[in-house]
């Protein structure tokens, strides 16, 4: 496993960072990716391991040939590595491979034993839709309030936990926000949750690439009962993720998806389900994805999560300082560079007088900087941070239903991965200074249905950069 020659020179560990992409003025520049909260580029170690593994890849579980045995071995080893990474242990926990955090949480929502007496799920207003919508049909879902600056209001958490008492079955909370990078005190919340005899699932989609996670043994009151992660946010974009959680929950009940691999024995009128994790992984699994995730974990472990956190905290402090001096720029969430070590490098902002859609378009087309704008799959959180009134929210809703997103509220978000540098921040800040002065060259029009801005007279010509290789000439 490679390590950078300088402690924080992580760029050399990644695929594709020096690849040039086109700009509106016809020039080609290396792309600056500041959209890591969405997806990250692959580690070279992952690319190389996947490449090496593909020569041996074959069917897993019960295949008898050497390649099948090797693939099964690699798949099960990936499971152990994932358990270990999260501080889980194979006696108390199971690691179920899924395609991403969304699938992990949906699975848990379908499999968690809510009952008529224990029917309440506590979540918060800051959640990504993937840790909110799956709960709504299966439990009485209560959203914990936030403070005005977007933190979980712990007094409100305590109050709701006391109000619903023994009705609370599960708490579902994000380890870190994908909008503001705010870290939730998950172990403290876990203690309170367990004191109420409920369980806790932590959405670690954002946390896992940036901080050490320790689920702790089940007899520790601060333990986490379930954790969900996505490999594509951890430098291993091969379509895998994991739900790691209490084995006892998955030892009971029918699987949410039925099919090959989930059973011990089937007769025409009876089924005996396999033990977890097999019970929960219907159909042929994504072996390559699991291997990729495990290699990424190994690479992160080799670097050391404390080094990752240290580098990203410095970068975030630097970015907050510089961004706060851009004319007309408004930062959301925690703006204090001194507390950069207590949050992730996910920074939401707006430029006065110019649509978030337009800012992100100009950054991409004219400066080669990839960010994201909009609501980041967290509509309630964005409305809260923007302080939108009920009337304004209703107006937005009816515009969207009428197919018009042109004045959809939102923000621009820059989010760091461990390979980003102060040079990347400088480029972002310079670009924003130009944009805030109106100093950009393109003529843009807005697509009403999506809100996006596109430059006139420009085509990206993707096939010059990558093509699947299918000749579509003459296709209807
Ligand atoms: C906090 C959080 N939870 C869940 C998700 C969903 O992750 P995925 O799209 O990998 O399922 C995301 C994705 O951005 C996220 O940031």
Number of helical segments with 4 or more residues? 12
Termini gap: 48 Å
List low-confidence stretches. Answer: none
Q: Please, what is the oligomeric state? A: single chain
List all distinct small molecules, including ions and cofactors, that are bound in this structure: pyridoxal-5'-phosphate
Judging from the principal axes of the Cα atoms, what is the shape? globular
Major sheet characteristics: 7 strands, mixed
Share of β-strand residues: 15-25%
Which structural class fits the helix and strand makeup?
Answer: alpha/beta
Helix percentage? 25-40%
Give the strand tally: 19
Radius of gyration: 23 Å
- Record the strand order, biggest sheet: 4-10-9-8-7-5-6
Rounded mean pLDDT score: 95
Write the topology of this structure.
Elements: E1 20-22, E2 28-30, E3 32-33, H1 44-54, H2 66-85, E4 93-98, H3 101-111, E5 120-124, E6 140-144, H4 154-164, E7 168-174, H5 186-195, E8 199-203, E9 226-230, E10 241-246, H6 247-250, E11 263-267, E12 270-273, H7 287-303, H8 305-323, E13 329-331, E14 346-351, H9 356-367, E15 369-370, E16 372-374, H10 379-386, H11 390-401, E17 411-415, H12 422-436, E18 444-446, E19 453-455
Parallel strand pairs: 3-15, 5-6, 5-7, 7-8, 8-9
Antiparallel strand pairs: 1-2, 4-10, 9-10, 11-12, 13-14, 14-17, 16-17, 18-19
Helix pairs in contact: 1-7, 2-7, 7-8, 8-12, 9-12
The structure holds pyridoxal-5'-phosphate (PLP).
């Amino acid at each position: 496993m490679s390590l950078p020659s300088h402690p924080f020179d992580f760029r050399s560990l990644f695929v594709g960072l020096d690849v040039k992409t086109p700009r509106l003025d016809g020039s080609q520049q290396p792309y600056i990716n500041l959209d890591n909260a969405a997806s990250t580029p692959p580690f070279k170690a992952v690319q190389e391991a996947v490449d090496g593994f593909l020569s041996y890849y074959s069917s897993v579980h019960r295949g008898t040939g050497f390649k099948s045995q090797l693939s099964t071995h690699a798949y099960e080893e990936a499971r152990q590595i994932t358990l270990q990474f999260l501080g889980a242990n194979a006696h108390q926990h199971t690691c179920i491979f899924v395609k991403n955090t969304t699938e992990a949480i949906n699975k848990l929502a379908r499999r968690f034993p809510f009952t008529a007496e224990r029917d309440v799920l506590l979540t918060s207003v800051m959640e990504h839709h993937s840790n909110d919508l799956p709960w709504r049909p299966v439990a009485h879902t209560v959203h914990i309030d936030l403070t005005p600056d977007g933190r979980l209001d712990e007094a409100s958490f305590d109050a709701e936990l006391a109000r619903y008492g023994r009705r609370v079955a599960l708490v579902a909370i994000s380890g870190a926000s994908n909008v503001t990078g705010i870290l939730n005190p998950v172990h403290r919340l876990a203690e309170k949750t367990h004191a109420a005899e409920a369980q806790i699932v932590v959405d670690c989609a954002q946390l896992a690439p940036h901080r050490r996670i320790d689920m702790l043994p089940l007899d520790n009151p601060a333990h986490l009962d379930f954790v969900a992660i996505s490999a594509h946010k951890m430098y291993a974009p091969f379509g895998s993720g994991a739900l790691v959680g209490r084995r006892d929950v998955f030892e009971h009940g029918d699987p949410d998806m039925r099919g090959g691999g989930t059973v011990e024995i089937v007769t025409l009128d009876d089924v005996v389900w396999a033990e977890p994790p097999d019970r929960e992984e219907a159909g042929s699994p994504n072996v390559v994805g699991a291997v990729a995730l495990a290699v990424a974990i190994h690479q992160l472990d080799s670097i050391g999560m404390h080094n990752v956190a240290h580098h990203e905290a410095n970068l975030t402090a630097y970015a907050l300082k510089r961004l706060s001096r851009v004319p007309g720029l408004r930062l959301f969430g925690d703006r204090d560079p001194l507390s950069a070590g207590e949050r992730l490098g996910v920074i939401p902002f707006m430029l006065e007088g110019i649509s978030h859609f337009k800012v992100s378009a100009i950054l991409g087309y004219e400066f080669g900087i990839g960010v994201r704008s909009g609501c980041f799959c967290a509509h309630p959180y964005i409305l809260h941070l923007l302080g939108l009134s009920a009337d304004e929210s209703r107006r937005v809703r009816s515009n969207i239903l009428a197919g018009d997103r042109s004045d959809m509220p939102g923000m621009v978000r820059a989010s760091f991965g461990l390979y980003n540098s102060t040079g990347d921040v400088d480029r972002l800040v310079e670009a924003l200074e130009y944009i805030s002065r109106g100093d950009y060259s393109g003529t843009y029009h807005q697509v009403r249905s999506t809100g996006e801005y596109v430059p006139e007279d420009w085509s990206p010509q993707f096939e010059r950069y990558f093509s699947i290789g299918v000749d579509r000439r003459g296709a209807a």
